[in-house]
Amino acid sequence: MPIFKSDSKIADENEEHTNPHSRIQTSKGQITLELLPEAAPKTVDNFLRLINDKFYDGLTFHRHVPNFVIQGGCPKGDGTGGPGWKIPGEFKQRRLRKKMPKHELGVLAMARSGNPHSAGSQFYICLDSAPHLDGQYTSFGRVIEGIEVVNELRNGDKIEHVSLLSVAESSIITMENK
Question: pTM here?
């Protein structure tokens, strides 16, 4: 059962729809993300599952390419590991691809190998515009607070804890950013 659906802890059918939000506490500070289940439902569900399982807690960012991306989510710390499963590349579905945010500063997307259906746990956050990635990778969220932290991250910086924010916390952040 998808975590973000109305029958979960995240939202109730009687509440106004709020996209799920998560917070990454890093060794450099915290980053708040808005996740976009309408653009990539299976990817968001997978990300939330990994958060609930505390998969990301204690991992590091293993790849930093200036003016391009910062990448984390590899349990081996070298870009070769994953959770033990793969998810479909939702960017291959035209109806979803149209809803995905363009690769620009602060966009969250899944890393993968050459196989379009090889993503598992590794994610990246864009440090600049990267339009050549649009339609090639599943983008499923964006930084809404803490972009200055994202810009400070480097190889080896720690992902201390990733949490899912409550509906109330998400609503407050959404209202503050309007």
Answer: 0.86
